[in-house]
């Protein structure tokens, strides 16, 4: 239980670090490689959610104006929620997929960072999928319920979930803003 709480706290710290990087227009972990973003398709949804949270904050503040303690507690929680929502989006922007000379680093926000050696990629194809049935040995990293690139691996790669569970994956489906360029970068000799 302590390990899970530690991992959740680390995830939250990575979200806030991502928020700082995003405000500074920087990326994380892209040195020595070519970055491929995947956040473009979820920006409007995430900012819409943040806007709804701000509206809720204003509404709750108005309703609790005569109860200062409850008002202050909920204001802190609401600001925390808005920062968390924007931090999730920021993590997706500043932590793109990265192709290096020896590996593909598949990422999703602050909670997935999977290194796949290029030698372990058996097949890569551009494949738009809108539905994803959970399957043993498959990792689906959809953005807006959509993946655009499928990787079939010649050997399983160990994936560590957010709470520390180990999974071996042999198929990885992910989204990229420019799937054709990602496929080309992975198939070029």
From TrEMBL:
User: What keywords tag this UniProt record?
Assistant: Membrane, Transmembrane, Transmembrane helix
Q: Which organism is it from?
A: Streptomyces camelliae
* Stretches that traverse the bilayer: 44-64, 73-91
Name of protein:
Integral membrane protein
- UniProt superkingdom: Bacteria
